[in-house]
Amino acid sequence: MAQVNLGNALESGRDAVRRHAWREAFDQLTAADQAESLNADDLEGLAEAAWWSGRADACISARERAYALQIEAGLPRRAALIALALAKGQFEQQAPAVGTAWLSRAQRLLRDEPIGIEHGYLARLQTVIALEADGTVKGCPSLPTIGYAGGNIRTLSLEDIWRTSPAIHFGRLRTIDDLWGFCRGCYYADVCRGGCTWTTHSLLGRPGNNPYCHYRVTQLARQGFRERIVKKEDAAPSPFAVGKFELILEPVPGAVSEPARSEAPAPPAPAPQAGNQGQGRIPPKLTLCHSCYQFVWPSEIACPFCGTDIEESAAAGDREHARLEALIADVEMLTRGQALPTRREPPPRLELPLIKRPPSDGPGDMEVLVEAVPRGMPSSPPASPEPNAAPVPMPHSGGATRV
Ligand code: SF4
Questions:
Q1: How far is C-alpha 194 from the chain's CA centre?
Q2: What's the gap in Å between 235 CA and the centre of ligand 1?
Q3: Is 374 helix (H, G, I), strand (E, B) or coil?
């Protein structure tokens, strides 16, 4: 352990950070922090020193404090950079769920900020490109070579491959017309475009219909259905080979008591589209409903999931956010032993004009919020097939079907 003189621990710690003398920096800044709480910049220095000294927990703790201070100071870009460092650290610690949560925070903080280097760091964690041993470039390491090789780095520049090869930028070129099954008529089809290419390709032989989707599972479950994947054939003993699988749509046992659930999920209505199909579009930004926390298309006036007025829910969400921030600030002051400042009453609790449904539709006698069915997922089958209906063979009543 480095010799620590409390009188100049902070300056010694900063100097050690500049020299990349990480153990010394960690000891000095830890001592300085105990004498007086470090500011956000020094906490970042402490976090870096902790990381390179093999103290992952101390690193995370220092970064989380630095993040809170940058948020408190109203510096979202700095906070986003710290959130990204936390996300990366958590991914490296094999904690993907926590890492994803930090990544989402960074995304939210940067969403309305002008493009800057922070967005580059965000893209670095969100995107991937694959290079095979012979120089073949693919859009993702998991994808097979056949059908997804964009070119060879020995003969083309990476930029040329990235800009010109459809086998690389298939995600930008994909449209709703390339989707199939449930995804084809999904409310989010034109934003999500069927989710992970590899997942669907390896399961069902072609992209555009992803059963490993939480939203899809919840939508099917609401109508008493579920999907099951059954392996029919093992993979061949060769690189990137995959087996053969079947996707089976079937009723959830015991979940077909309500009349609306005795039918299979109906083919959804055409989903909203962003326009400029086929021109390599960047997906549009969706709006968050602050009542049910589902993302909705910006053109929506009322949330198609819960019926709440989107603008009112955003305003109420802002008020609720301010109220909670004030409460958190109070708790932090109390835990530091400080007296609470005199201030106006915090805004009232979040109140939204929610539609209620009759208690008979809900579980037991509870009064519950309406389960408004989003566009693209009617609760009962239409009288005639929709013109743009998803090519999902529907099961006979109560039976299972293969997709
Ligand atoms: S069902 Fe899921 S994976 Fe498919 S388009 Fe909708 S959100 Fe994406």
A1: 15
A2: 26
A3: coil
Distance 199 CA to ligand 1 centre (A): 12
Q: How far does the centroid of ligand 1 lie from the alpha carbon of residue 201, in Å?
A: 15
Cα 192 to averaged position of ligand 1 atoms, centre (Å)? 6
Q: Among 14, 19, 5, 6, which Cα is nearest to 44's?
A: 14
Closest CA to 23 of 50, 60, 5, 58: 50
> Mutate which of 184, 187, 215 to test ligand 1's pocket (most atoms within 8 Å of Cβ)?
215
- Average pLDDT rounded to a whole number, residues 85-93: 92
Question: 64: closest CA among 44, 50, 78?
Answer: 44
pLDDT exceeds cutoff 70 at 358: no
The protein residue with its alpha carbon nearest to ligand 1, atom 7, reads 188
Other CB atoms closer than 10 Å to residue 389's CB: what's the count?
A: 17
Around ligand 1, the residues with Cβ closer than 6 Å are 182-183, 186, 188-189, 192, 194-195, 210, 213, 215-216
In tens, the pLDDT along 226-278 reads 999 999 999 989 877 889 999 999 999 887 544 444 344 443 444 445 544 44
Band (346; pLDDT cuts 50, 70, 90): low
Q: pLDDT for 45-64, tens place per residue?
A: 999 999 999 999 999 999 99
Distance CA 395, CA 228 (A): 14
Give percent of the chain above pLDDT 70. Answer: 77
Please write the tens of the pLDDT for every residue from 289-327: 988 989 999 889 999 888 999 999 888 888 888 888 888
**pLDDT interval class at 334 (50, 70, 90):** confident
Q: How close is the Cα of 182 to the center of ligand 1, in Å? A: 8
**Looking at ligand 1, which atom is closest to the CA of residue 216?**
1
Cβ atoms within 10 Å, residue 198: 19
Using alpha carbons only, what angle is made at residue 307 by residues 361 and 220, rounded to the nearest 5 degrees?
A: 55
Closest CA to 390 of 380, 403, 402, 379: 403
Give the 3-state secondary structure of residue 87: helix
**DSSP at 369:** B
